[in-house]
């Protein structure tokens, strides 16, 4: 019976007949709202937190530090336009999708998305966070290759400095290591704390030397906070 059931299931859902159920085929089993969420997260990954911070600035149109329902709806509308699916979704359905996204990701139930909640919407692959975490757990000595690897993660335009959304993406990933629930104000305060004492320039950029100082300071801080073993 199980073999027959499997054969019927594969016949119904294995559209490309490769003997496997991929994520798009799996989505057919879900209600429309959950189907949309699953495919949205699969189709719209971000390369880094730098791109995420650009999106955050673009859609937080009132500069409140939160993505409210109308801003989230505009974000979803633009995604559907880019995917050429906007004609398949009515305004009422778009509102329904927006409400569903808020229900799923608005963990503190304040009717809007803060920075950490929006990051979950974007389904970020935190390669940057894991890379930085690896270095900070190590010794107080960082090699030139270590610094170059981290620096290249954020210097997306390859101009030799980390600035604007690159800097905010870097600081957001640092904040992610120490605080899972955070908003734009937390990021601003964290930026002020981190940049104190690294000869931060007024032009809003950090160099490789300043990046090295930040990582070394954080690595030292982490080691000092670790409980001593008997």
Automatic annotation (TrEMBL):
Annotated InterPro entries: Calbindin_Ca-bind (IPR051001), EF-hand-dom_pair (IPR011992), EF_Hand_1_Ca_BS (IPR018247), EF_hand_dom (IPR002048)
GO molecular function: calcium ion binding
Coiled coil feature spans: none
SUPFAM superfamilies: EF-hand
Sorted UniProt keywords: Calcium, Metal-binding, Repeat
Recorded superkingdom: Eukaryota
GO cellular component, one term: cytosol
Record GO biological process: regulation of long-term synaptic potentiation; regulation of presynaptic cytosolic calcium ion concentration
PROSITE patterns: EF_HAND_1, EF_HAND_2
Keyword Calcium: yes
Domain EF-hand: 1-36, 47-82, 142-177
Family assignment from sequence similarity: Belongs to the calbindin family.
Identification of the protein by name: Calbindin-32
Organism: Papilio machaon
